[in-house]
Design goal:
Length: 207
Amino acid sequence: MNATKIKICGLSRPEDIETANKLSPEFVGFVFWPKSKRYVDPETASSLRLILDPKIKAVGVFVDAKVEEVSDLLNRGIIDIAQLHGHEDEDYINSLRQLTDKPLIQAFQLGKDPKEDPKMTLLRALTSSADYVLIDSGMGSGETFDWRVLEGFKREYFLAGGLDSGNVAEAVEKTHCFAVDVSSNVETDGKKDSKKMKAFVDAVRKT
């Protein structure tokens, strides 16, 4: 079995990139949603990308952005992959495919709509035409969910939601996910913490 991949999301400073370059996660994330406290504008992301190790894929996180905005950042090489974290549907994905051939991640939040059965959310994830899917407990909620709902989910996925250095090994063992995604739990006072980043990466790689 291939080793579980790692995505560290919400990088916004040169020192965050320097730490990532030392730890070599497979993916890092830049958040382009203006309402996020981790928001970076395209110019900042471009300058950060220049110092990012080329072996690490840069993921851009978007929430209901215009397809032209997403495709522009992909086609300019500021990001390698777009992560769609809003209400984007198959029509949106198809429109984006007309403008770029770069990979897409579609995020699905199990706790977003209390009226929706988690199994229905997972069914939508299973049939998404995106290259990858991400399963989360909620947008940046920092909370875990019952991983047992993922039993029998027949697709590779990024697992997010409340993961930290203390529980990520258990998460990997129980879910056999393609990748794990972390943001707030490797921060101190709202900024990425190099020690917490290293502890998280070490915990994943020991599994």
